[in-house]
From TrEMBL:
<dbReference type="InterPro" id="IPR002156">
    <property type="entry name" value="RNaseH_domain"/>
</dbReference>
<dbReference type="GO" id="GO:0004523">
    <property type="term" value="F:RNA-DNA hybrid ribonuclease activity"/>
</dbReference>
<dbReference type="InterPro" id="IPR012337">
    <property type="entry name" value="RNaseH-like_sf"/>
</dbReference>
<dbReference type="InterPro" id="IPR036397">
    <property type="entry name" value="RNaseH_sf"/>
</dbReference>
<protein>
    <recommendedName>
        <fullName>RNase H type-1 domain-containing protein</fullName>
    </recommendedName>
</protein>
<dbReference type="Pfam" id="PF13456">
    <property type="entry name" value="RVT_3"/>
</dbReference>
<dbReference type="GO" id="GO:0003676">
    <property type="term" value="F:nucleic acid binding"/>
</dbReference>
<feature type="domain" description="RNase H type-1">
    <location>
        <begin position="11"/>
        <end position="93"/>
    </location>
</feature>
Length: 99
C-alpha cells in the first residue's frame, strides 16, 4: 500500500518528515495493524522518536508527541534510520517529482 502526501501549507523538511510519520501511523492504526516498522531517512527524526535525543525545535514538539502517542497504541513499533542513498522508495518518489 502506498500513499502520497502533498502539503498545502508551508513546512520545513523536518516538519514534513514528522507529518508523514504521523499520517502513516494513523493509517496503520486505523487498519488495526499492531506491528509496525517505520523507516525514515531523517536520522534526527528517528533519533527523536527513539528518545536518543531530545526535540529542541518548538514546532516539532507537537509532531513528536503525536508520533509517540500513536506508537504507544500499537503492539510493536520499530523505528529505523535508512540513509537516503539506501532508501529506494524515497529515491523513486524523488526521481518522479513526487517527493
Amino acid at each position: 500500500m502506498e500513499y502520497a502526501l502533498r502539503f498545502t501549507f508551508p513546512t520545513t523538511n523536518n516538519e514534513a518528515e514528522y507529518e508523514a510519520m504521523v499520517v502513516g501511523l494513523t493509517i496503520v492504526k486505523s487498519l488495526g495493524i499492531g506491528r509496525i516498522w517505520v523507516k525514515g531517512d531523517s536520522k534526527l527524526i528517528i533519533d527523536q522518536v527513539k528518545v536518543i535525543c531530545g526535540v529542541r525545535h518548538e514546532p516539532l514538539v507537537k509532531y513528536h508527541a503525536k508520533a509517540i502517542q500513536l506508537a504507544k497504541g500499537s503492539k510493536q513499533v520499530i523505528f529505523e534510520h535508512i540513509p537516503r542513498a539506501q532508501n529506494e522508495e524515497a529515491e523513486h518518489l524523488t526521481r518522479n517529482n513526487l517527493l
